[in-house]
Design a protein that fits this description.
Radius of gyration: 27 Å
Number of strands: 17
Shape: elongated
Distance between the termini: 65 Å
Oligomer: single chain
Number of helices: 25
Structural class: alpha/beta
Mean pLDDT: 91
Strand order of the largest sheet: 7-6-8-9-11-10-15
Largest sheet: 7 strands, mixed
Helix content: 25-40%
């Protein structure tokens, strides 16, 4: 195996040219086999094998720097920097991350996980290099999907002023997670058809330089803002910004890529290399269905079918069904996603109500303010977004939606621990960062039926509402408890003395198991489904504090600023001395791993919670 010759960074440079293509084939087969067992991001990684190889053949690591936008496509980079053995434990607790990690390798120069950040980070590395008199290359790799995010343009605007080398590689596979949308996608479509430009330019330049005075003409053409390139390819955005554009380049032609890197490296300014790749290349199921193989579960190699079949609906499925039904009943209902119609469950809504569905690209800030405008115009917008991605639009939620008290519904998927994607994707901060915003109502359902009820409640409530729900199988227990949603009121499921479990959303299921164990060992225990984190049900909380010796707050959120701390603040403000035990996630980032294992590690699993409750209760 050629891969066995690569034990550390730069070993690929020892391989003769005739072994490059066989190595690319080995890498693809390796990734398919490993990801079929562990799960992970397959299609994006298969698409950048040759591009990554070309960078490792041309540049030298860790001295030179690559910043991978999002970072889920860095598997080949990890292979070529000596981390082959780590793929057996890819995305498992304590194992290798599916994203670049500085603590994992000196060849990972910047941790990434969210989109549209690589140009900004790369520009910072360039400035740090220049200020310290360095000479290393800095390369930012960004996908065409990430160019739907506004932060990328802020960075491009800044990079246009550079007087030193900075290479931006635009990996154009016409996909983010879903197919790309919007003006930038259409613009790149035009560039893809203009491949003849590069050859024409070189031929014309060579011809002019042979003529008397031709070199002066060439220099003048290069200086002219509305020069040759604008005549042949109208509207050259990058050149107009002052960034040299090279391409399009075949992203699967290693020789052409290396040659282009050489041209780019010589320039004393920012240069963008437009590289065309095929997402999922080399594995037919992934080429046909790149969105399905964006983040794949373990699958059967022969057909790409997942090894485990889901037998129960997950919360995203429930949301999808309810949205379709509500769309039938209310013509003012509109749905918004930031490049994730499948992941957030809006695909069915899009198919049935295409005129009321909006995919704005990877642009969460715009999605929220766009929703605010829709609400101000009399519509009822639902913004479906992952918890960790809504963090990017905090100011828009606060400033554009909530100050005006606009009726925008936030359907916050993947709230809580999400597992294998790790720190950048765990949705464990939303209760904290949303609870402080005036006018916002914040809810969490105990099971699948309550998610349905909360969505219907939110549609009829006039004001901003956020509903957060977890990834994975929807809890179908407690079906017998389905009382109407009343604004700001919790739901008492079981009422006894001694201990009161105050559970939020996904933690109600855990609380059921905790209560069962406490009952078995002789402790009286009430169980309250809080429903609302904002506003708190103050009347119920004060009543429980007066009738129980210990209140146990339970949430799948960090402790700081979370539900438990709000309950503590309320009782302290009211002068109530009841003992409180806060069950929450420690104030730290949680790495990747199986969700059940992570529950134990952070101390919110039923067994750990029972032990903490008993220890505290017997000490009272």
């Amino acid at each position: 195996m050629l891969l066995e010759k690569i034990d550390q960074a730069n070993d690929i440079q020892m391989l003769p040219r005739e072994e490059w293509r066989p190595l690319a084939a080995e890498i693809r087969q390796f990734l398919i086999e490993k990801i079929s067992m562990t799960g992970g991001h397959l299609a994006s990684n298969l698409g950048v094998v040759e591009l990554t190889m070309a960078m490792h053949l041309f540049f030298h690591f860790p001295e030179d720097k690559i910043v991978w936008d999002v970072g889920h496509q860095a598997y080949t980079h990890k292979l070529l920097t000596g981390r082959r053995a780590g793929f057996d434990e890819l995305r498992k607790y304590g194992g290798m991350s599916g994203f670049p990690k500085r603590k994992e390798s000196s060849c990972d120069c910047f941790d990434t996980g969210h989109s549209s950040t690589s140009i900004s980070a790369g520009l910072g590395l360039v400035k740090a290099r220049d200020l310290q008199g360095g000479s290393e290359a800095v390369v930012s790799v960004i996908g065409d999907g990430a160019l739907t995010g506004g932060m990328a343009y802020e960075a491009l605007n800044n990079a246009s002023q550079l007087k030193s080398n900075f290479i931006i590689v635009l990996n154009d596979n016409q996909m983010s997670i879903a197919p790309n949308v919007g003006g930038m996608s259409q613009y790149l479509n035009g560039l893809r058809t203009a491949g003849a430009y590069t050859g024409f330019k070189e031929g014309l330049q060579n011809t002019l330089e042979l003529l008397p005075g031709g070199e002066r003409v060439v220099r003048q053409l290069k200086k002219t803002k509305s020069g040759l390139k604008q005549l042949i390819i109208p509207g050259m955005l990058f050149e107009d910004m002052g960034i040299t554009y090279l391409g399009p380049v075949d992203g699967h032609d290693i020789d052409q890529l290396i040659k282009t890197f050489g041209e780019a490296r010589r320039l004393k300014q920012a240069v963008l290399i437009h590289v065309k790749t095929v997402k999922g290349r080399g594995y037919e199921p992934a080429e046909r269905h790149p969105a399905r193989f964006h983040g794949a579960e373990p699958f059967q190699i022969e057909n790409g079918v997942p090894k485990s079949k889901r037998t129960k609906a997950n919360y995203t499925d429930v949301f999808s069904t309810v949205m379709r039904k509500m769309g039938d009943r209310d013509e003012k209902l509109v749905a918004i996603t930031a490049a994730m119609p499948d992941g957030t469950g809006l695909k069915r809504f899009r198919n049935i109500f295409p005129e009321r569905f909006f995919d704005v690209g990877i642009a969460e800030e715009h999605a929220v303010t766009f929703a605010a405008g829709l609400a101000a115009g009399g519509m009822k917008p639902v913004v479906a977004v992952y918890s960790s991605f809504l963090q990017r639009a905090y100011d828009q939620v606060l400033h554009d939606v909530c100050i005006q008290n606009l009726h925008v519904i936030f359907a916050i998927d993947r709230a809580g621990l999400v597992g294998s994607d790790g720190e950048t994707h765990q949705g464990i901060f939303d209760l904290s960062y949303l609870s402080s915003i005036p006018n916002l109502t914040l809810m969490a359902p105990k099971n699948k039926w309550e998610l349905s009820d909360m969505l219907k409640f939110a549609l009829n409530y006039m004001g901003p509402v956020a509903i957060r729900y977890p990834r994975g199988e929807a809890y179908d227990g407690l079906q017998e408890f389905r009382s109407p949603i009343i604004y700001g009121k919790g739901e008492a499921l079981y009422e006894e003395g001694g201990i009161a479990l105050l559970a939020v959303g996904s933690m109600v299921k855990t609380a059921v198991a905790v209560r069962r164990t406490l009952k078995e060992i002789g402790y009286g225990c009430s169980l309250i489904n809080m429903r609302f984190v904002k506003p708190l049900d103050e009347e119920l909380l004060l009543e429980l504090a007066g009738s129980h010796r210990l209140l146990v707050t339970m949430e799948e959120n960090v402790r700081s600023g979370g539900f438990g701390q709000q309950v503590q603040d309320l009782l302290e403000l009211r002068g109530v001395k009841t003992e409180i035990l806060n069950i929450s996630i420690p104030n730290e980032y949680v790495e990747h791993g199986n969700v059940e294992l992570l529950y134990r590690e952070v101390g919110i699993d039923a067994e750990t919670v029972v032990k903490r409750i008993v220890t505290r209760y017997v000490s009272l």
